[in-house]
Amino acid sequence: MTDQLPPTTAPTPLPAARGLMGRCPRCGEGKMFDGFLTLRPSCSTCGLDYSFADAGDGPAVFVILIGGAIVVFAALMTEVVYQPPFWLHAALWLPLILVVTLLPLRMVKGLLIALQYHHKAAPGQLVMYKDSPKGEA
Predict the structure, then answer these.
(1) What distance in Å separates the CA atoms of residue 134 and residue 132, rounded to the nearest whole number?
(2) 111 CA to centre of own chain
(3) What is the distance between the alpha carbons of residues 49 and 42, in angstroms, rounded to a whole number?
(4) Do residues 25 and 48 make contact, with C-beta atoms less than 8 angstroms apart?
(5) Mean pLDDT, range 56-68, rounded to an integer
(6) pLDDT in tens, 72-131
(7) How far apart are CA 85 and CA 78, in angstroms?
(8) pLDDT tens digits for range 18-52
(9) pTM for this structure?
(10) Chain centroid to CA 59
(11) Cα radius of gyration (the chain)
């Protein structure tokens, strides 16, 4: 008796992984970005409209806080251990600041947009009930 396994397809990654890869949060196939941080109007594969996506300043804040902590820690450790001249600090840390802030920015923006899609995030709305006194929600 020969048991044949059905042909397997590669599992589609979770929406968070799709966002980190810059892929559509629904299908995982289409690209999410047109340029470095410019969002496409919709997915070219499944047609998901990206108008729901509003990452705002979130990606920049996360990247600045995490990248800044890394660079400041490294600069302080270097200063304490080696005490290099200031020109060497500038030569070391200015390029590192660019690397740790610009490289992860697109991934973090894709991640936040994919999480918005996954959790069906929407702007808050004030709902007035008929039984509530005037001015109270």
Answers:
(1) 6
(2) 3
(3) 4
(4) yes
(5) 95
(6) 999 999 999 999 999 999 999 999 999 999 999 999 999 999 999 999 988 888 887 777
(7) 11
(8) 999 999 999 999 999 999 999 999 999 999 999 99
(9) 0.80
(10) 6
(11) 23
- What separation in angstroms does the CA of 93 have from each of 35, 69, 81, 126? 27, 12, 16, 47
Look up residue 77 and give its amino acid: M
> For the chain, what is the HEC assignment?
CCCCCCCCCCCCCCHHHHHHCCECCCCCCCECECCCCCECCECCCCCCEHHHCCCCCHHHHHHHHHHHHHHHHHHHHHHHHHCCCHHHHHHHHHHHHHHHHHHHHHHHHHHHHHHHHHCCCCCCCCCCCCCCCCCCC
